[in-house]
Amino acid sequence: MKSSALGTNTSPAEVTHISKHGVWLLARGREFFMSHEDFPWFKDAPVGKILNVEEPNPGHFYWPDLDVDLTEEIISHPGRFPLKAK
User: Does the model's pTM come out above 0.85?
Assistant: First the structure.
C-alpha cells in the first residue's frame, strides 16, 4: 500500500524565541536561528515587529514592519551573504 502525498503545510512561519543572542524562526517543521551578529535588523527592534513575520513563498520570509526580506538560504548560511545593515 502506498500513502498519498502530503497536503499543503498550513502552519505559518513564526518566531518562537527571542533572546539577547538572536531570534529563532519555525517554518515548515524546521527551526532556524538568526544571531544578532549576522542579522542586526532584529537586535533593537520591538518584539511585536519581530513577531510579525510572513512567508509569501516557501523559503522566503518577510518582516513587513521592519522591511526585512530573508531566504532560507541566507538564514542557513549567513557567511555566504556578508552584506550587513549599517
Answer: no
